[in-house]
Design goal:
alpha/beta, five-stranded mixed beta sheet, 16 helices
Length: about 375
């Protein structure tokens, strides 16, 4: 009897163990199923996040320099990534080239002179690109000479020789400057050269005056040993010309299909721009990280000149950075058409849209 009882007890223990094992198995399967579901959900979420992230190529108009440092800062600090953009920023070889890169679709967005955009859109209305954020409210277009040349006003340029690269924006817009200042353009001889020789030829006396961006040629002349007091600069904006300068531009595909990404890009860019305006040195540090060979002191001075003369203006202090005045833009189109010999003139709405700009409060300098 005791032996039977013991066997019965053993059988009961075995049954309980089997039931416990089965229960554990069920729980384990439930845990594994739940884990698989969580892993699957994580994979789906990560995949969706990747799908919502866009790779974007962005072209500058020129080399990595102080005035465009805010783009580099936004990239370096992850502001673009924060809004779902993997932005690759490349240097450029002129505004016309930047516009072509964007128009071709090789780059989704870029930074270029809007006057080059006027020329391009006039000739390619079926492939028009638009500016979405004006950065240089006053353009840097200028002509320069030296005091020793006896030139102090536009009238003194008559019979003199102008030197510049053929693609230089100030050079191409010189006809409008001449008309605005009652200078007979035909009285000026023109000589083209490589950009690296422009200031050198002026210093050597091989040309009487040159054209160029204010924040570039002014500093380049100083770097050639010319005293600041010996430089005579005439900025086009000081002679009644209505030109705007560089703006952020977007391709037709971006405008038609990725407006949310344009808006995200501009928001991140405006955030970095405000930081650079508050402390230009942070912009130079970001530029240095992209090009270790830059002259930091020179680029800081270049950036501060651009802020003072092109970005922070009475207009942007009142209305914020990024927008335009359509009446002024229409007059600028007329002046560009005169200089470039355009017959098909784009309207301001063909050239610019403010639909993607950040709120005004985020754009106040």
């Amino acid at each position: 009897m005791n032996r039977l009882k013991s066997k019965h007890q053993y059988r009961s223990v075995d049954a309980k163990a089997a039931l416990a094992a089965a229960d554990w198995g069920k729980q384990a399967r439930r845990l594994l199923t739940a884990s698989a579901l969580l892993v699957g959900a994580a994979i789906v979420t990560a995949t969706a996040a990747r799908a919502d992230t866009m790779d974007m190529k962005f072209t500058l108009d020129w080399k990595f320099q102080g005035p465009t440092s805010f783009f580099l800062l936004a990239e370096e600090k992850g502001y673009y990534k924060d809004v779902g953009l993997n932005v690759a920023i490349d240097s450029g070889k002129g505004s016309a080239g930047a516009g072509t890169r964007v128009a071709s679709g090789a780059y989704e967005m870029g930074f270029a002179d809007i006057n080059a955009l006027i020329d391009y859109n006039s000739k390619n209305p079926d492939k028009a690109i638009k500016a979405v954020m004006m950065v240089y409210d006053f353009p840097p277009f200028s002509v320069f000479t030296l005091k020793k040349n006896g030139i102090s006003s536009p009238a003194d340029l008559k019979g003199k020789t102008l030197g510049a690269p053929g693609f230089d924006a100030s050079y191409k817009l010189f006809p409008a400057f001449a008309k605005a200042t009652n200078l007979e353009e035909a009285s000026v001889e023109k000589k083209n050269m490589d950009p690296a020789l422009r200031e050198v030829m002026l210093v050597r006396g091989e040309v009487d005056f040159i054209s160029g961006h204010y924040f570039s040629s002014f500093l380049d002349l100083k770097s050639k040993g010319v005293a600041e007091s010996d430089i005579v600069a005439m900025r086009y904006s000081d002679f009644g010309l209505d030109f705007y300068g560089n703006a952020v531009i977007a391709s037709p595909d971006m405008l038609a299909n990725h407006g949310d990404k344009i808006k995200a890009f501009l928001g991140a860019t405006a955030k970095a721009l405000k930081e650079v305006l508050a402390d230009p040195k942070v912009g130079i540090a970001a530029t240095k990280s992209r090009d270790p060979l830059i002259d930091e002191a020179l680029e800081l001075e270049r950036l501060e000149l651009a802020i003072k003369t092109n970005i922070v203006t009475p207009n942007t202090q009142r209305d914020g950075i990024g927008g335009i005045d359509k009446g002024r833009m229409a007059r600028a189109v007329d002046q560009v058409a005169l200089s470039y010999g355009l017959t098909n003139k784009p309207t301001p709405d063909d050239l610019f849209t403010d639909a993607f700009l950040p709120p005004n409060a985020d754009r106040m300098p």
